[in-house]
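Q: Structure tokens for this one, please.
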Amino acid sequence: MSDLLSVGATGVLAYQSALTTVSDNIANAATPGYSRRETTLKEITSVSGVASSRAQAGNGVTTTGIRRFSDELKSSAVRSSSSDLARTESSVTFLSGIETALSGNTLSTSLTDFFNSAKAIAADPTASTPRTAFIEAATTAASAFGVTGRALDAVNVTIDTTASTSVAQINGIGTALGQVNNGLARSQPGSGAQAQLLDQRDQLLEQLSALSNVSVSTDDIGRVTVRLGDASGPVFLSGDTSGTVYYARSAAGSVSFSVNRNGVTSAVNPTGGVLAGVAEGALRVAAARTDLNQIASDFTTTVNDFQAQGRDLDGNAGTPLFTIGATPTDISVAISSPRAIAAASVGGGPRDNSNLTVLQQGRLAGGFEDRLTALVATNASTLTARQQVAAAQSTIRDGAIAARDSTSGVNLDAEAVDLLRFQQAYQASSRVIQAAQDTFQTILNIR
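A: Here is the predicted structure, written as tokens:
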């Protein structure tokens, strides 16, 4: 009779645990990062004697732990695809900023208007109106260079902010992963606590991979060792000790990352994640800035050379039209009087306009508008290509997530079936206990 009670009692306890696990699955079906769990059940057997190894069944059921459904290969695919997508999306953001900086300030149009205004002076060299318009066009062009340069500088500020924020996030994730590793070392294998820690671990790794590509190795209790970059990259986390990542920018505009762990500093060369996008964006901004600076320098030199070779309306040698500030794009107009424009050649009279030919020749030789157009077009082409890559990578990542979730995700239909199954088993075990009690009471009544 006691065996019958024991069988029923073990069934009630086991199926109560199974029902709790199913309830957790249903409650967390929409929780990001939650992996489906299952209570594993095992028949209780006993050995019928010291000299015999024959097992006897009919002793009930017991739980052996909580099984967590996951697939490391599929999780790794999600991390890899997330890293690739984050790099491309970051690159798209910075390329979009460069495009806005180069094309949003009508610099090319301002240069065209400036050179065209010189043609109006050639038509009537002594008239004040076209000369005034020329100075105004020069002011507009100088301002457009300055605005464009500052806009590129603003993209650099965005890059620095993004890099600093990402590095801080990486360091925070490293600390959290160290705590998870420590918790896994203390948790009971097959327990609900271990399953929760493993969920946290995988979520943190996915967040980390969006910031920098990582190489992950796992020990037999689920603790991870993380390298930043590929498998040859520096160790960022081992055990419960993580390193500290740093960000730096050179005078030339390129960026670098390093990690210091246990007093040893190593270079980090990410090929994925936001950090890789930052490095690429910084190089492209630096290249655009260099090209823009060269165009600005060539433009101001050409115009000032034109002034130096001619005579103004009063017969004086021309003075520089532009002055340069801290950067080549920091341009200001140096003359205010329309009469100071050196339209005439040396020896020419007030109505001479032959020196303006020098300006037009300089325009053709410098190709300023064409160079700006090419700079904008190259960036736009790269941006379009990156956007197309991002769309493809987004599809790949969605597929990787779907494949992972097919293993670890919660299927409410399947959980509903399990819920009914375990409820019935629980009720049946309760009836076994009740039947044992009724039988026992009947025997007592007979006596």
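A few notes: Residues 128-186 form the longest helix (59 residues). Confidence is low (pLDDT under 50) at residues 48-53.
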